[in-house]
Design goal:
The structure is a single chain. Helices cover about 35% and strands about 25% of the residues. It has helices at about 1-10, 25-40, 65-70, 95-105, 150-155, 160-165, 175-195, 210-215, 265-280, 290-300, 315-330, 355-370, 395, 405-410, 435-440, and strands spanning about 15-20, 40-45, 50, 60-65, 80-85, 90-95, 110-115, 120-125, 140-145, 155, 200-205, 225, 235-245, 260, 260-265, 280-290, 305, 340-350, 375-380, 380-390, 415-420. Helix 7 (about 175-195) crosses helix 8 (about 210-215). The protein is globular.
Length: about 450
Protein backbone atom coordinates (compact mmCIF):
# COMPACT_ATOMS: atom_id res chain seq x y z
CA UNK A 1 0.00 0.00 0.00
CA UNK A 2 2.80 2.43 0.85
CA UNK A 3 4.37 1.86 -2.57
CA UNK A 4 1.16 3.13 -4.15
CA UNK A 5 1.30 6.34 -2.12
CA UNK A 6 4.93 6.87 -3.06
CA UNK A 7 4.11 6.39 -6.76
CA UNK A 8 1.49 9.12 -6.42
CA UNK A 9 4.38 11.49 -5.60
CA UNK A 10 5.09 14.34 -3.15
CA UNK A 11 4.41 12.49 0.09
CA UNK A 12 3.82 15.15 2.78
CA UNK A 13 5.51 15.03 6.16
CA UNK A 14 2.15 14.30 7.83
CA UNK A 15 -0.04 12.23 5.48
CA UNK A 16 -3.76 11.90 6.20
CA UNK A 17 -5.14 9.11 4.03
CA UNK A 18 -8.79 8.16 3.58
CA UNK A 19 -9.81 4.83 2.07
CA UNK A 20 -13.22 4.68 0.40
CA UNK A 21 -15.13 2.43 -1.97
CA UNK A 22 -15.48 -1.31 -1.41
CA UNK A 23 -13.68 -4.62 -1.53
CA UNK A 24 -11.13 -4.86 1.28
CA UNK A 25 -10.96 -1.42 2.89
CA UNK A 26 -10.38 -2.62 6.45
CA UNK A 27 -7.58 -4.97 5.44
CA UNK A 28 -5.91 -2.29 3.31
CA UNK A 29 -6.39 0.33 6.01
CA UNK A 30 -4.61 -1.81 8.58
CA UNK A 31 -1.86 -2.79 6.14
CA UNK A 32 -1.14 0.84 5.28
CA UNK A 33 -1.18 1.92 8.93
CA UNK A 34 1.36 -0.76 9.84
CA UNK A 35 3.61 0.15 6.91
CA UNK A 36 3.65 3.79 8.00
CA UNK A 37 4.44 2.72 11.57
CA UNK A 38 7.38 0.68 10.28
CA UNK A 39 8.85 4.00 9.12
CA UNK A 40 8.90 5.10 12.76
CA UNK A 41 5.76 7.24 12.54
CA UNK A 42 3.13 7.66 15.24
CA UNK A 43 0.10 6.45 13.31
CA UNK A 44 -3.54 7.06 14.12
CA UNK A 45 -6.05 4.58 12.67
CA UNK A 46 -9.68 5.62 12.81
CA UNK A 47 -12.89 5.96 10.82
CA UNK A 48 -15.15 8.81 9.81
CA UNK A 49 -18.14 6.44 9.63
CA UNK A 50 -17.70 2.97 11.16
CA UNK A 51 -15.39 0.00 10.72
CA UNK A 52 -14.67 -3.42 12.16
CA UNK A 53 -13.37 -3.14 15.70
CA UNK A 54 -9.57 -3.00 15.16
CA UNK A 55 -8.94 -4.27 18.69
CA UNK A 56 -10.37 -7.60 17.54
CA UNK A 57 -7.88 -7.51 14.68
CA UNK A 58 -4.86 -7.25 16.94
CA UNK A 59 -4.34 -3.48 17.31
CA UNK A 60 -3.89 -1.47 20.48
CA UNK A 61 -6.02 1.60 21.00
CA UNK A 62 -8.64 3.50 22.94
CA UNK A 63 -12.42 3.76 22.81
CA UNK A 64 -14.39 6.86 23.78
CA UNK A 65 -11.20 8.63 24.84
CA UNK A 66 -10.60 12.35 25.12
CA UNK A 67 -8.16 14.09 22.81
CA UNK A 68 -5.62 14.16 25.63
CA UNK A 69 -5.97 10.41 26.24
CA UNK A 70 -5.61 9.61 22.54
CA UNK A 71 -2.51 11.79 22.30
CA UNK A 72 -1.01 10.01 25.32
CA UNK A 73 -1.22 6.71 23.42
CA UNK A 74 0.97 7.95 20.56
CA UNK A 75 4.32 6.20 20.24
CA UNK A 76 6.88 6.19 17.41
CA UNK A 77 6.62 3.05 15.31
CA UNK A 78 3.18 2.16 16.68
CA UNK A 79 -0.40 2.20 15.38
CA UNK A 80 -3.06 3.51 17.73
CA UNK A 81 -6.70 2.79 16.89
CA UNK A 82 -9.15 5.33 18.25
CA UNK A 83 -12.85 5.95 17.93
CA UNK A 84 -16.14 5.63 19.74
CA UNK A 85 -18.02 2.43 20.51
CA UNK A 86 -21.29 1.50 18.87
CA UNK A 87 -24.06 0.01 20.98
CA UNK A 88 -24.61 -2.81 18.49
CA UNK A 89 -22.54 -4.85 16.10
CA UNK A 90 -19.16 -4.41 17.80
CA UNK A 91 -18.13 -1.71 15.31
CA UNK A 92 -15.85 1.26 15.84
CA UNK A 93 -17.46 4.64 15.12
CA UNK A 94 -16.05 8.01 14.19
CA UNK A 95 -14.10 10.45 16.30
CA UNK A 96 -15.55 13.91 16.52
CA UNK A 97 -13.91 16.10 13.83
CA UNK A 98 -12.75 18.52 16.54
CA UNK A 99 -11.04 15.69 18.44
CA UNK A 100 -9.38 14.47 15.25
CA UNK A 101 -8.04 17.95 14.55
CA UNK A 102 -6.49 18.17 18.02
CA UNK A 103 -4.89 14.72 18.07
CA UNK A 104 -3.29 15.20 14.67
CA UNK A 105 -1.01 17.78 16.29
CA UNK A 106 0.61 14.80 18.03
CA UNK A 107 0.42 12.01 15.43
CA UNK A 108 2.66 11.80 12.35
CA UNK A 109 0.10 10.13 10.06
CA UNK A 110 -3.55 9.11 9.99
CA UNK A 111 -5.26 6.32 8.07
CA UNK A 112 -9.05 6.61 7.93
CA UNK A 113 -11.72 4.21 6.75
CA UNK A 114 -14.23 6.70 5.39
CA UNK A 115 -16.90 4.64 3.65
CA UNK A 116 -19.08 1.60 4.28
CA UNK A 117 -20.01 -1.15 1.84
CA UNK A 118 -21.42 -4.00 3.96
CA UNK A 119 -18.92 -6.50 2.55
CA UNK A 120 -19.76 -5.84 -1.10
CA UNK A 121 -16.93 -5.82 -3.65
CA UNK A 122 -18.08 -2.64 -5.40
CA UNK A 123 -19.91 0.52 -4.40
CA UNK A 124 -21.59 3.58 -5.83
CA UNK A 125 -22.06 6.06 -2.95
CA UNK A 126 -25.16 7.94 -1.90
CA UNK A 127 -25.10 11.74 -1.82
CA UNK A 128 -24.02 11.86 1.84
CA UNK A 129 -21.07 9.51 1.25
CA UNK A 130 -18.15 9.20 1.73
CA UNK A 131 -17.45 11.12 4.94
CA UNK A 132 -14.15 12.94 4.50
CA UNK A 133 -12.16 15.08 6.94
CA UNK A 134 -10.85 18.39 5.48
CA UNK A 135 -7.26 17.56 6.58
CA UNK A 136 -6.95 14.80 3.98
CA UNK A 137 -3.87 14.61 1.79
CA UNK A 138 -4.76 11.36 -0.06
CA UNK A 139 -7.95 9.55 -1.07
CA UNK A 140 -7.71 5.92 -2.18
CA UNK A 141 -10.81 4.52 -3.92
CA UNK A 142 -10.99 0.73 -3.68
CA UNK A 143 -12.79 -1.58 -6.06
CA UNK A 144 -12.76 -5.31 -5.37
CA UNK A 145 -12.01 -7.07 -8.64
CA UNK A 146 -13.83 -10.31 -7.77
CA UNK A 147 -16.88 -8.21 -8.69
CA UNK A 148 -15.93 -8.08 -12.37
CA UNK A 149 -18.17 -9.79 -14.93
CA UNK A 150 -20.99 -10.34 -12.46
CA UNK A 151 -24.41 -8.66 -12.73
CA UNK A 152 -24.02 -5.25 -11.10
CA UNK A 153 -27.06 -5.84 -8.90
CA UNK A 154 -25.31 -8.81 -7.23
CA UNK A 155 -22.00 -7.11 -6.37
CA UNK A 156 -22.70 -3.38 -5.97
CA UNK A 157 -23.63 -1.73 -2.68
CA UNK A 158 -26.20 1.02 -3.26
CA UNK A 159 -27.13 -0.49 -6.61
CA UNK A 160 -30.03 1.97 -6.84
CA UNK A 161 -27.51 4.83 -7.03
CA UNK A 162 -25.75 3.07 -9.91
CA UNK A 163 -29.07 2.71 -11.72
CA UNK A 164 -29.66 6.46 -11.47
CA UNK A 165 -26.29 7.17 -13.06
CA UNK A 166 -26.41 4.56 -15.81
CA UNK A 167 -30.08 4.42 -16.67
CA UNK A 168 -29.51 0.80 -17.70
CA UNK A 169 -31.24 -2.35 -16.52
CA UNK A 170 -28.85 -4.45 -14.41
CA UNK A 171 -25.75 -4.49 -16.64
CA UNK A 172 -22.72 -6.73 -16.11
CA UNK A 173 -19.80 -5.00 -14.34
CA UNK A 174 -16.98 -4.73 -16.89
CA UNK A 175 -13.72 -2.80 -16.29
CA UNK A 176 -15.05 -0.03 -18.54
CA UNK A 177 -18.33 0.22 -16.63
CA UNK A 178 -16.51 0.14 -13.29
CA UNK A 179 -14.28 2.99 -14.40
CA UNK A 180 -17.23 5.03 -15.61
CA UNK A 181 -19.12 4.55 -12.33
CA UNK A 182 -16.11 5.37 -10.14
CA UNK A 183 -15.43 8.53 -12.14
CA UNK A 184 -19.03 9.77 -11.95
CA UNK A 185 -19.79 8.81 -8.37
CA UNK A 186 -16.47 9.33 -6.58
CA UNK A 187 -13.77 11.13 -8.54
CA UNK A 188 -15.72 14.04 -10.03
CA UNK A 189 -17.69 15.11 -6.93
CA UNK A 190 -14.73 14.63 -4.57
CA UNK A 191 -12.38 16.63 -6.79
CA UNK A 192 -14.82 19.56 -6.68
CA UNK A 193 -15.03 19.43 -2.90
CA UNK A 194 -11.38 18.59 -2.10
CA UNK A 195 -9.22 19.80 -5.00
CA UNK A 196 -6.08 19.72 -2.84
CA UNK A 197 -6.20 15.97 -2.11
CA UNK A 198 -4.37 13.41 -4.26
CA UNK A 199 -6.66 10.67 -5.53
CA UNK A 200 -6.19 7.19 -7.00
CA UNK A 201 -8.22 4.06 -7.74
CA UNK A 202 -6.96 0.72 -6.43
CA UNK A 203 -8.12 -2.48 -8.10
CA UNK A 204 -7.93 -4.80 -5.10
CA UNK A 205 -7.24 -8.53 -5.46
CA UNK A 206 -6.17 -8.08 -9.06
CA UNK A 207 -2.98 -8.67 -11.04
CA UNK A 208 -4.37 -8.39 -14.57
CA UNK A 209 -2.83 -5.34 -16.23
CA UNK A 210 -5.37 -5.55 -19.03
CA UNK A 211 -8.15 -4.68 -16.56
CA UNK A 212 -6.09 -1.73 -15.33
CA UNK A 213 -5.64 -0.45 -18.89
CA UNK A 214 -9.30 -0.93 -19.81
CA UNK A 215 -10.47 0.99 -16.73
CA UNK A 216 -7.88 3.76 -17.02
CA UNK A 217 -9.53 5.10 -20.18
CA UNK A 218 -12.60 6.04 -18.13
CA UNK A 219 -10.96 7.37 -14.94
CA UNK A 220 -9.16 10.70 -14.64
CA UNK A 221 -6.95 9.63 -11.71
CA UNK A 222 -4.15 6.99 -11.56
CA UNK A 223 -5.26 3.34 -11.40
CA UNK A 224 -3.16 0.83 -9.43
CA UNK A 225 -3.28 -2.93 -9.05
CA UNK A 226 -3.09 -4.64 -5.68
CA UNK A 227 -2.80 -8.40 -5.57
CA UNK A 228 -4.01 -10.69 -2.83
CA UNK A 229 -1.67 -11.40 0.05
CA UNK A 230 0.60 -14.31 -0.87
CA UNK A 231 -0.42 -17.61 0.64
CA UNK A 232 -2.64 -20.63 0.09
CA UNK A 233 -5.95 -20.20 -1.66
CA UNK A 234 -7.91 -22.14 0.97
CA UNK A 235 -7.73 -21.67 4.73
CA UNK A 236 -9.45 -24.03 7.15
CA UNK A 237 -10.05 -23.62 10.87
CA UNK A 238 -10.63 -26.57 13.20
CA UNK A 239 -12.18 -25.50 16.52
CA UNK A 240 -11.32 -27.87 19.39
CA UNK A 241 -13.18 -27.60 22.71
CA UNK A 242 -11.27 -28.96 25.73
CA UNK A 243 -13.95 -30.22 28.12
CA UNK A 244 -12.40 -33.21 29.90
CA UNK A 245 -11.11 -31.70 33.16
CA UNK A 246 -11.98 -32.91 36.65
CA UNK A 247 -12.90 -29.51 38.19
CA UNK A 248 -11.30 -30.55 41.49
CA UNK A 249 -11.12 -27.02 42.90
CA UNK A 250 -14.71 -26.33 41.87
CA UNK A 251 -16.03 -29.24 43.93
CA UNK A 252 -18.19 -30.67 41.12
CA UNK A 253 -18.20 -30.70 37.32
CA UNK A 254 -18.17 -26.98 36.63
CA UNK A 255 -19.12 -27.48 33.00
CA UNK A 256 -22.54 -28.65 34.16
CA UNK A 257 -23.02 -25.58 36.35
CA UNK A 258 -26.02 -23.67 35.02
CA UNK A 259 -25.84 -20.02 34.07
CA UNK A 260 -29.18 -18.44 33.22
CA UNK A 261 -30.70 -21.88 32.84
CA UNK A 262 -27.97 -23.41 30.65
CA UNK A 263 -25.01 -25.59 31.60
CA UNK A 264 -21.71 -23.82 31.06
CA UNK A 265 -20.53 -26.14 28.29
CA UNK A 266 -23.74 -25.62 26.29
CA UNK A 267 -23.19 -21.86 26.17
CA UNK A 268 -19.91 -22.33 24.31
CA UNK A 269 -21.29 -24.97 21.95
CA UNK A 270 -24.10 -22.62 20.89
CA UNK A 271 -21.62 -19.86 20.13
CA UNK A 272 -19.30 -22.09 18.13
CA UNK A 273 -22.21 -23.35 16.06
CA UNK A 274 -23.07 -19.72 15.23
CA UNK A 275 -19.43 -19.00 14.33
CA UNK A 276 -19.32 -22.04 12.04
CA UNK A 277 -22.46 -20.81 10.27
CA UNK A 278 -20.98 -17.33 9.84
CA UNK A 279 -17.49 -18.30 8.66
CA UNK A 280 -17.13 -20.73 5.78
CA UNK A 281 -13.47 -21.34 6.66
CA UNK A 282 -14.49 -23.18 9.84
CA UNK A 283 -14.30 -26.80 8.70
CA UNK A 284 -14.59 -28.69 12.01
CA UNK A 285 -15.85 -28.23 15.54
CA UNK A 286 -14.45 -30.98 17.77
CA UNK A 287 -15.31 -31.56 21.44
CA UNK A 288 -12.91 -33.55 23.63
CA UNK A 289 -14.45 -34.78 26.88
CA UNK A 290 -14.73 -37.68 29.29
CA UNK A 291 -18.37 -36.88 30.04
CA UNK A 292 -21.11 -38.64 28.07
CA UNK A 293 -23.61 -35.81 28.57
CA UNK A 294 -21.29 -33.27 26.96
CA UNK A 295 -20.37 -35.59 24.10
CA UNK A 296 -24.00 -36.38 23.36
CA UNK A 297 -24.88 -32.68 23.25
CA UNK A 298 -21.96 -31.98 20.91
CA UNK A 299 -22.82 -34.92 18.67
CA UNK A 300 -26.41 -33.68 18.48
CA UNK A 301 -25.12 -30.47 16.93
CA UNK A 302 -23.17 -32.40 14.31
CA UNK A 303 -19.79 -31.78 15.98
CA UNK A 304 -16.95 -34.28 15.99
CA UNK A 305 -16.60 -35.84 19.46
CA UNK A 306 -13.61 -37.52 21.08
CA UNK A 307 -13.66 -39.36 24.38
CA UNK A 308 -10.49 -38.72 26.35
CA UNK A 309 -9.70 -41.93 28.19
CA UNK A 310 -6.52 -40.38 29.58
CA UNK A 311 -7.87 -37.25 31.27
CA UNK A 312 -5.91 -38.14 34.40
CA UNK A 313 -2.75 -37.25 32.44
CA UNK A 314 -3.79 -33.59 32.31
CA UNK A 315 -4.65 -30.92 29.76
CA UNK A 316 -2.05 -32.05 27.23
CA UNK A 317 -3.92 -35.33 26.77
CA UNK A 318 -7.01 -33.45 25.55
CA UNK A 319 -4.95 -31.23 23.23
CA UNK A 320 -3.38 -34.29 21.63
CA UNK A 321 -6.64 -36.27 21.44
CA UNK A 322 -8.37 -33.39 19.65
CA UNK A 323 -5.51 -32.86 17.21
CA UNK A 324 -5.26 -36.53 16.30
CA UNK A 325 -9.02 -36.82 15.71
CA UNK A 326 -9.28 -33.69 13.59
CA UNK A 327 -6.27 -34.54 11.46
CA UNK A 328 -7.58 -38.05 10.94
CA UNK A 329 -10.85 -36.57 9.71
CA UNK A 330 -9.25 -34.45 6.96
CA UNK A 331 -6.04 -36.56 6.47
CA UNK A 332 -3.09 -34.17 6.10
CA UNK A 333 -1.44 -36.57 3.62
CA UNK A 334 -4.09 -35.51 1.12
CA UNK A 335 -3.46 -31.81 1.81
CA UNK A 336 -1.40 -29.61 -0.53
CA UNK A 337 0.42 -26.97 1.60
CA UNK A 338 0.71 -24.64 -1.39
CA UNK A 339 -3.06 -24.58 -1.88
CA UNK A 340 -4.47 -24.96 1.62
CA UNK A 341 -3.54 -24.23 5.22
CA UNK A 342 -5.04 -25.70 8.38
CA UNK A 343 -5.29 -23.99 11.76
CA UNK A 344 -6.27 -25.51 15.11
CA UNK A 345 -8.04 -23.28 17.62
CA UNK A 346 -8.37 -24.52 21.21
CA UNK A 347 -11.20 -23.35 23.48
CA UNK A 348 -11.66 -23.68 27.22
CA UNK A 349 -15.25 -24.71 27.94
CA UNK A 350 -15.49 -22.61 31.13
CA UNK A 351 -15.52 -19.10 29.62
CA UNK A 352 -19.26 -18.34 29.47
CA UNK A 353 -18.79 -14.59 28.95
CA UNK A 354 -16.84 -14.89 25.69
CA UNK A 355 -19.08 -13.40 22.98
CA UNK A 356 -19.62 -15.15 19.69
CA UNK A 357 -18.85 -11.93 17.81
CA UNK A 358 -15.51 -11.74 19.62
CA UNK A 359 -14.66 -15.30 18.56
CA UNK A 360 -15.55 -14.55 14.96
CA UNK A 361 -13.54 -11.31 14.98
CA UNK A 362 -10.56 -13.14 16.47
CA UNK A 363 -10.52 -15.78 13.74
CA UNK A 364 -10.97 -13.21 10.97
CA UNK A 365 -8.28 -10.96 12.40
CA UNK A 366 -5.89 -13.85 12.87
CA UNK A 367 -6.29 -14.87 9.24
CA UNK A 368 -5.53 -11.34 8.08
CA UNK A 369 -2.47 -11.12 10.33
CA UNK A 370 -0.65 -13.89 8.44
CA UNK A 371 0.81 -15.04 11.77
CA UNK A 372 1.17 -18.67 12.84
CA UNK A 373 -0.11 -18.37 16.42
CA UNK A 374 -2.87 -16.24 17.91
CA UNK A 375 -4.56 -15.75 21.25
CA UNK A 376 -7.01 -13.48 23.02
CA UNK A 377 -5.72 -10.80 25.37
CA UNK A 378 -6.85 -8.07 27.71
CA UNK A 379 -4.04 -5.52 27.83
CA UNK A 380 -1.05 -7.73 28.86
CA UNK A 381 -3.14 -10.64 30.13
CA UNK A 382 -3.31 -13.49 27.63
CA UNK A 383 -6.14 -16.01 27.54
CA UNK A 384 -8.09 -18.54 25.53
CA UNK A 385 -8.85 -19.34 22.79
CA UNK A 386 -5.43 -20.02 21.26
CA UNK A 387 -4.92 -20.90 17.58
CA UNK A 388 -1.95 -22.58 15.85
CA UNK A 389 -0.89 -23.14 12.25
CA UNK A 390 -0.34 -26.79 11.35
CA UNK A 391 3.44 -26.22 11.35
CA UNK A 392 3.23 -26.32 15.15
CA UNK A 393 1.46 -29.71 15.33
CA UNK A 394 4.59 -31.65 16.29
CA UNK A 395 5.26 -29.29 19.21
CA UNK A 396 1.65 -29.59 20.38
CA UNK A 397 1.78 -33.38 20.19
CA UNK A 398 4.96 -33.34 22.30
CA UNK A 399 3.23 -31.63 25.25
CA UNK A 400 3.10 -33.55 28.51
CA UNK A 401 1.19 -33.24 31.79
CA UNK A 402 -1.19 -30.44 32.65
CA UNK A 403 0.18 -28.02 30.04
CA UNK A 404 -1.57 -26.64 26.99
CA UNK A 405 -0.74 -24.71 23.88
CA UNK A 406 0.53 -21.66 25.77
CA UNK A 407 3.84 -23.47 26.25
CA UNK A 408 4.27 -23.54 22.47
CA UNK A 409 3.13 -19.93 22.22
CA UNK A 410 5.91 -18.81 24.60
CA UNK A 411 8.57 -20.27 22.33
CA UNK A 412 7.52 -18.26 19.27
CA UNK A 413 6.69 -14.67 20.32
CA UNK A 414 7.72 -13.35 16.89
CA UNK A 415 4.90 -15.33 15.24
CA UNK A 416 2.17 -14.23 17.67
CA UNK A 417 -1.03 -12.34 16.89
CA UNK A 418 -2.72 -10.81 19.94
CA UNK A 419 -6.41 -10.00 19.72
CA UNK A 420 -7.58 -7.52 22.34
CA UNK A 421 -11.03 -8.37 23.72
CA UNK A 422 -13.43 -5.48 24.32
CA UNK A 423 -14.04 -6.50 27.95
CA UNK A 424 -11.76 -8.31 30.42
CA UNK A 425 -14.76 -10.32 31.61
CA UNK A 426 -14.75 -12.26 28.33
CA UNK A 427 -11.51 -14.00 29.36
CA UNK A 428 -12.90 -15.00 32.76
CA UNK A 429 -12.89 -18.71 33.56
CA UNK A 430 -14.09 -20.42 36.72
CA UNK A 431 -12.01 -22.58 39.04
CA UNK A 432 -14.10 -22.19 42.21
CA UNK A 433 -17.82 -22.57 42.87
CA UNK A 434 -17.90 -19.41 44.97
CA UNK A 435 -16.71 -17.38 41.96
CA UNK A 436 -19.49 -18.75 39.78
CA UNK A 437 -22.10 -18.21 42.47
CA UNK A 438 -20.98 -14.62 42.93
CA UNK A 439 -20.79 -13.62 39.25
CA UNK A 440 -23.27 -16.03 37.70
CA UNK A 441 -25.97 -16.59 40.34
Amino acid sequence: MLEILEEMGNMPAKPVISLIGAGGKTTCTMELARELAEQGKRVLLTTSTHMENPFLLGLRGILNGSAREICAMAQPGMVTAAGTSQTTGGKLSSLEPSVFQVVMKTYDAAVIEADGAKRHFFKVPASHEPVLFPQMTHILILAGMPALFHPLREVCFRFEEAEKLLQQENPVLTPELAGKLLEMSYVTPIRKQFPQAKMAVILNQCKEEIFQKRMADFVSVPVFLKEKFPGPENVYFHLIVLAAGFSRRFGSNKLLYEIQGKPMYEILLEKLQWVKEQMKEVKTVCVVSQYERIMEAASGRGFLTVKNENSILGLSSSVKAGLVAVRKAYNPKNSNPEKEAHYFCFFAADQPHMKQETILGFLQGFRRSRKGIGCMAWEKQRGNPVVFHEKYVDELLALEGDTGGREVLKRHPQDLFLCQVPDAQELKDYDYLREAEKLCP
